[in-house]
Amino acid sequence: MYCLSLLKKMFLSLVLLVGAAPAQSILSAQYPLGLKMFVGSGSSASMGGTGIGTIMDQNTHLLNPANLGYVKRNVFSGFFDLSLTRIADNSTSSYFSSFTPNQISFAFNANAFGVLSMGLIQDADATIKFQNRSPFYYAGLSDSLEMSFIRNGGMTSWQVGWGYNVLKKVAIGLSYSYKYINLTDSRRQILYGPGGIKSSRDSVSAIGSMNVLRGGIMAPVGPIVAGLTLEYPFEAQIDKVHGFYSNGNSNDVEASQATIKLAPSGGFGLSYSPNSQWLYALDYSMILWDHYLSGGVLGSTEVNNTHSFSAGAQFVPAQNVLAPKYWETIAYRAGIRYAQLPAKENSELGLTIGGGLPLGSDGLLDIILGYTNRSGGASVSFKEQVFSVSVGISGGKKWSKSSRDSY
What we know:
The chain is mainly β. About 5% of the residues lie in helices and about 60% in strands. A 14-stranded antiparallel β-barrel has the order 3-4-5-7-8-9-10-13-14-15-16-17-18-19. Strand 18 (about 365-375) and strand 19 form a beta hairpin. The N and C termini lie far apart (about 60 Å).
């Protein structure tokens, strides 16, 4: 809460230090790892982030590793986000832009051995960069005090996955993630006065890696597909360096280690396709923060568990027409998402609309427009509004033929 209080005092005269940078969010200063990024395809993003129970090649292993069991070709998928964030406090507001590459992943059909996948993912972004300079009076002298708060880093991961279709019906899948955390919080004060310039900086860095396993299952029943996924992170050691610097000199530096554990999570999803034109999807997810260990290194959280709900729909005008017009082959999508955030009374509500534009016979370009309203509850006056333009690109080829499948 100290971070949030400090940033609130700065808000009336915020200065963005980097014009185009990763995501900026004052409220995320309360969250252990900053903002959680959406990790999926553009197709799922345009449907509110659904996908746990939806069969889509371009999702590879990302939302449910069991999805790989239905992939019959070699696939690549990428998702990128360009956002404009408006942070408002009563009648005052500031704007920040950001560009974030969320994920790039690949899936390879190994026929009788199932489907293998790999990806590079940005899981969380904790970047905040603000500064404030104001008059400072002491002992009858007029000085100028500059204060800044800078948080850099987040969490990224290398992931591999495997999926298998049992009797061409139920699919199972597993994925492994090697997650890397690198966070630095720095609070700096510079006093400009007749006696010269005096500066001090309090800095805390946390660096470490951990292993995470995820499993999933998907089962179609007529036009309905149900999916379930569970993620379990293992305990890990993380390094912490706390330093205090005055006028550029190191006055006190302390290094230590701690045991941390990320919060386990799980989700359930349903999709329904009554015909070749329409697809509906619904997801529910939970993060078990009461099993999270900060080790006194990462930030703490006041909540036990957080819940999220998302729903979306897709419409393709001419799915099975021999000679359709191009606009009839576009997948028109819309979605809504509500999520509780890892701080008391914090939540966000998002809306998305988008279109999946076919690229030749094997590619897809998703363009998504999104709006998200993020709130800190009645006790926090900040409101964050995020306007985003996201792009997903995917495609693939069936390079091999098994004895079970036909073109």
